[in-house]
């Protein structure tokens, strides 16, 4: 554990998106994360790598798993972690993101983890503070640690990503998870199929080097991984779909549709799930097929790696 | 005022088909006495001093058809005095101001105030517009006739579009009866809802809600269809896409209307937004390079009549926000001409055409006797060093708001002197 590879450094000061990372950066983060997997399963989970460092979790949008994952990751590394939920305090009083950033910056944190409902918020924040900024999701744009933990989960099960055929299915247009995963999986050599009804498909998505499908069965054909996304009803301002019932019929992952993928295909979901809308509830819990719980588990390891690397 | 003589200038006055080396004589009354190649040392009494411009250009003062001024209500963004100073430094001597103020210019009582402030504080010619609908709500028409009689030059809801088709048809009928100019910001509200940038790969990458170019096309199609019935004076404030031009080209065959474009859409594309640069959050949005090239072609083919600055001063606080929260628009009146000259220097558009789209074309649409160097007219003009290189820096901008879309851009060509009614009001 102690043999920290000092020689390798990350090329960026902040983790704002997968787009900014090089393949070396990604491999570095993933290799660091692998070291934490065993630790997280052991009895004594506490390290002191970040002792004396201050980590602020700045969450402008409600989150349970990402926030607790980052909190736990920081604490396991020995950092002082402060979590702030701002979705109903300063913002309501009219304080802008930059003002909040300046206030926090004055407290000299070593790292800020930020989630915000607006795309680009973490970029804006990173320009105004002295410490490293980790993006924990900005609007529809990126959610880099989610993509990294997804990659780690795939590698953990399939040993590699290169050459795999991976389907990302569901509410692509509103999904930062989809965008980060497209960049990362492409970078690591997977073939990516994007499956969504046209109303939930972003314009010109194929220019990102993916195949697009509105027919789920065609899109799932021979896939090694089926990544389902949550239908983000809270971001839908007008009618995108006729009903959840119809959506489930055409885009919900059911045993029937899963047959089109490879026999040993794995099911993933970033959570939280809408059972019975985008995924059949039994499939979600099927321990032979679903790695959804593993994603959560490895999420802590990936975030520990990111905190460690970007704190340095 | 003393009589003024300018010699050896490259004079461009598209309205009078002047494009030649010559001189300009301004009378003691501030009116143009003579212009063109016939003006030389032989016309000037030996005791009089003349200014040798040594090949610098004289062009009519620019008529900017789309300018937001913060007065009344948003004086901290821009007032008539600062707008006037900024305009003069860019060779702009006449501006058409938008009604999106607080209070909104939608009734007769405020027009007097506006005209008085404009006259007292601004040294340039201010031509105010009033809103098409009361309180910009898009439901009830304002009093076109009464407002026009008070000196309102035209009617527009600024950056809002009349969404209701029935209302639009009624507006056109009234405008037809009263011979009023209607200027429409063309964007379908529902289709463009929550949109911030062009709908395409950039909106997908940045995770920002896109605005389809169809939103623009649909309103243009609708309005030009309505126009077939009641051909009022109708002007499309600004277009941004190839698709709109296709419609315009087709419709020019059977209806009469005019069309403008923002210098931003002629000089920038969606890629310039880069890493969420809020100063490039504009309406209409910057679109693809293909669209930009199509717009240039549109100016060259006379499908686009007017180039505007779409000057929209916003204070820094409104731009130091996330892209979604940031205000829309860029300050641009003082860089309008220099940025347009970039299109001349890179051989996209002929100089004469650019000057035409900035001077006599808008004046003709507005039916004002500006934007020309006709003998007997008030001498509104500027002198231009067409090759002078300079760099846009926001701290050097005169406008009260520094939200330029072209920070750091290297430009070529600068106004050295600006005259209004024969009086030199700006000198570099």
What does this structure look like?
The complex is a heterodimer of chains A (312) and B (428). With 312 residues, chain A is an alpha/beta fold. Helices cover 38% and strands 14% of the residues of chain A. Chain A has helices spanning 23-41, 65-76, 97-105, 121-128, 144-158, 176-187, 216-220, 244-251, 255-258, 281-285, 292-311, and strands at 54-59, 80-85, 111-116, 132-138, 165-169, 191-195, 211-213, 225-228, 266-268. Chain A has a five-stranded parallel beta sheet with strand order 7-6-5-8-9. A four-stranded parallel beta sheet of chain A has the order 2-1-3-4, sandwiched between helices. In chain A, helix 2 (65-76) crosses helix 11. Chain B has 428 residues and is of the alpha/beta class. Chain B has 13 helices and 18 strands. Chain B has helices spanning 80-89, 108-121, 144-149, 165-178, 201-206, 214-229, 242-251, 263-267, 289-300, 316-319, 336-345, 351-358, 360-366; strands spanning 4-13, 18-26, 32-36, 51-52, 57-60, 62-67, 92-97, 125-130, 154-155, 181-184, 197-198, 210-211, 233-236, 258-262, 306-308, 381-391, 410-420, 423-427. In chain B, strands 1, 2, 3, 4, 5, 16, 17 and 18 form an eight-stranded mixed beta sheet that branches. In chain B, strands 6-7-8-9 form a four-stranded parallel beta sheet, sandwiched between helices. Chain B has a four-stranded parallel beta sheet with strand order 10-13-14-15, sandwiched between helices. In chain B, helix 3 (144-149) links the parallel strand 8 (125-130) and strand 9 (154-155). The longest helix of chain B is centred in the middle third of the chain and has 16 residues, at 214-229.
